[in-house]
Design goal:
25% strand, 10 strands, six-stranded mixed sheet, four-stranded antiparallel sheet, single chain
Length: 258
């Protein structure tokens, strides 16, 4: 009798960078994420907005693997997060709303440490580090100082650099312009736009609706743990004005209900 074997491929090549299917997450009896499904394509700059407590940060923390989720599936660049976490996470760079780094390290040593995890060659590290410092207006001399001596803005810059040093295909940012001066914020926006033009993907969460409507191709509004509505701003730029009004009307209804 001839045996037949079926091969199951964990990696699923696709033009979808982030695939979320029927995602649920609870804290005790409190259900925070209620069946979110979402596809973000390669080359998209995707916005994610919602009021505090809507489930925005919990969804992001589930995507990057910080928090385990109860039910559903997440694929990052075709890799299933639960079955192949190392491969999935290797595709992602992440910057939180509050800069998080090993503050007893110097800036350059911290970025070098992150680069070593992702096996960035030394010559590539040197050229990327110098380039990214220049782009985000961080002096090389300042990177020789301990991070605990940095201002909030400098910490944010070193975290941005660390998240990009290994050239991830997916870049996830939570309130990325908080603490940055106007010049650096504009440079960051410019870099984000260049990043997706090169075929990479960005998911950015922010309360700044003006920023989101200005730079994003698509925007999803998360409300009470579900995706309330998605706007395709690239195909329908006229939706940019509707986005703000729709979001504010949703907030107003919630406030009146309370």
């Amino acid at each position: 009798m001839k045996l037949q074997f079926t091969t199951t491929y964990l990696y699923k090549p696709t033009n979808i960078a982030i695939h979320i299917e029927n995602l649920y997450k609870s804290y005790g009896k409190n259900l925070v994420i209620k069946g979110i499904s979402l596809d973000i394509f390669k080359g998209e700059l995707y916005g994610f907005i919602g009021q505090n407590g809507a489930g925005k940060s919990t969804t992001i923390e589930s995507i990057i693997g910080i928090k385990p989720y109860d039910k559903g599936e997440i694929l990052l660049d075709g890799w299933p997060l639960k079955k192949k976490p190392n491969q999935a996470k290797a595709s992602v760079g992440y910057v939180s709303s509050e800069p998080i780094a090993y503050e007893d390290m110097t800036g350059i040593n911290y970025v070098a440490f992150i680069a070593s995890i992702y096996k960035v060659p030394k010559d590539e590290f040197n050229s990327r580090f110098e380039y990214l410092c220049k782009r985000f207006s961080l002096k090389i001399d300042d990177t020789l100082k301990l991070i605990k001596e940095y201002s909030h803005g400098m910490k944010q810059k070193i975290c941005l650099i660390a998240s990009l040093i290994y050239n991830p295909k997916i870049w996830i940012l939570d309130e990325p312009t908080v603490g940055l001066d106007v010049f650096t914020s504009e440079e960051l926006i410019s870099y984000m736009q260049e990043y997706v033009k090169n075929g990479n993907t960005i998911l950015v969460a922010s309360h700044n609706i003006e920023l989101i409507s200005r730079i994003c191709d698509k925007v999803s509004i998360i409300h009470n743990g579900t995706i309330l509505k998605t706007f395709d701003l690239k195909s329908h730029p006229e939706y940019k004005s509707k986005l703000k009004n729709y979001f504010l009307s949703t907030c107003k209804e919630d406030n009146n209900a309370n």
